[in-house]
Specification:
CATH architecture of the largest domain: 3-Layer(aba) Sandwich
Strand content: 15-25%
Distance between the termini: 9 Å
Helix content: 25-40%
Number of strands: 13
Shape: globular
CATH superfamily of the largest domain: Glycogen Phosphorylase B
Largest sheet: 7 strands, parallel
CATH topology of the largest domain: Rossmann fold
Order of helices and strands: EHEEHEEHEHEHEHEHEHEHEEHHH
Structural class: alpha/beta
CATH class of the largest domain: Alpha Beta
């Protein structure tokens, strides 16, 4: 098949949707499909390439008129199917992306909903904001969700034969630089072999609980543990402007609590360096305020690296999330509970080893080839 993946962000832009699009495209190409990525215009000096993908950085804006440009490319490339990677911030929170052309003017369209966050339209828009998301799901030939929570929400809006749950995988492979040495990597961050290194991966925003992360570190130090925090990856990303303000709040809290010497930042960096940082940690703490979800690429990266994970209880039951087997669960915003769980893992090697094995086993269920086969099978039913 000739497939078109439409994404508002794509590397070198920083963002999980762009990274997902690249990984999915590479996996689909590996199955023998011809994959075209349709994304925003980028200065030539900033363009990244992938030999097995055709990347078209040709959409000048994601405002009104964006679909005209998408369809022009679809016609020129004779695409069999389009797959819109939907996350509203990736399109500048503008509503235009929701208003897809009618079926007789376009190829079959799938929409992959990376989350169901509604766009800002205008003050007091109220129910209209959810209406445009529902419209997008209903107008597509198929709606793909990446997690159980979103499936339960959309199944009231979309017929069962047009709704599919296809998970995401890790955007970061467990592949550190050649010659990687764990103790040397820890020493790079002034962390000794017997210190407790807590890891966090992902951009900082309200939903990810950055303030709880810092307060947990403060409580661990107050209890006498030789704890450090490694912030792996970029701080804010390219798409969501609210991230920058929240990151500033987290940085001020670090200073107020006197933790500057215990919080270390890799910054946005090469995937191999991200992998090295994750592998250097003893525990990964992911204090999502809305509960752990399999839509989180940051979670998948920690699973793929076989880390012992402390995170928050999911909003809906998730069979894959087993407290004490694949991760330790605490209530959202419960700093005391987070500190207790991290301290428990620091003191119990057997528990930490069990969680590491459970994480690695769970990660195997989200291999990109498997995800690509599910996606291609859905596309095949549309054309």
């Amino acid at each position: 098949m000739r497939m078109g993946l439409v994404s508002g962000e794509y590397p070198p832009m920083q963002g999980g949707v762009g990274d997902f699009t690249r990984e999915l495209g590479l996996a689909l190409a590996g199955l023998g499909h011809e994959v075209h990525v349709l994304t925003g215009a980028t200065p030539a000096a900033d363009r990244a390439t992938d030999a097995s993908l055709s990347i078209h950085r040709a959409i000048p804006t994601w405002r009104w008129g964006c679909w005209r440009e998408v369809l022009r490319l679809a016609r020129e490339l004779a695409l069999d199917v389009l797959d819109l990677q939907y996350q509203t911030v990736a399109y500048g929170m503008h509503p235009a992306i929701h208003f897809v052309p009618p079926p007789d003017e376009r190829p079959p369209l799938a929409v992959t909903f990376h989350d169901l966050r509604v766009p800002y339209l205008f003050p007091k828009a109220g129910p209209l904001r959810w209406w445009v998301v529902r419209r997008l799901a209903r107008c597509a030939n198929a709606a793909i969700v990446t997690n159980r929570e979103d499936y339960l929400r959309l199944e009231r809006e979309v017929a069962g034969d047009r709704l599919a749950l296809i998970p995401i995988g890790s955007n970061i492979a467990p592949a550190p630089p050649p010659g990687y040495d764990r103790l040397a990597e820890r020493a790079r961050w002034s962390v000794g072999p017997h210190d407790l290194l807590v890891g966090y991966f992902g951009f900082l925003n309200e939903s990810k609980g950055g303030e709880e992360l810092v307060r947990t570190l403060a409580l661990l130090v107050e209890r006498g543990l030789p704890a450090h925090l490694l912030m792996v990856g970029g701080r804010v990303g390219s798409s969501d402007p609210t991230n920058r303000a929240y990151a500033g709040r987290v940085e001020r809290l670090i200073a107020e609590l006197g933790l500057g010497g215990r919080v270390h930042w890799t910054g946005y960096t090469d995937p191999q360096i991200v992998s090295a940082g994750l592998l250097a940690t003893d525990v990964c703490l992911l204090p999502y305020r809305d509960g752990v979800s399999l839509r989180r690429g940051t979670l998948h990266a920690c699973l793929a690296h076989g880390r012992a994970i402390v995170t928050t209880r999911p909003a809906v039951p998730l069979p894959e999330v087993r407290d004490g087997e694949t991760m330790l669960l605490v209530a959202p915003r419960d700093v005391e509970g987070m500190a207790d769980a991290v301290a428990r893992l620091a003191a119990d090697d057997a528990l930490r080893t069990r969680l590491e094995a459970g994480a690695a086993a769970l990660a195997a269920e989200f291999a990109w080839e498997r995800i690509a086969r599910q996606t291609a099978a859905l596309f095949g039913r549309l054309v």
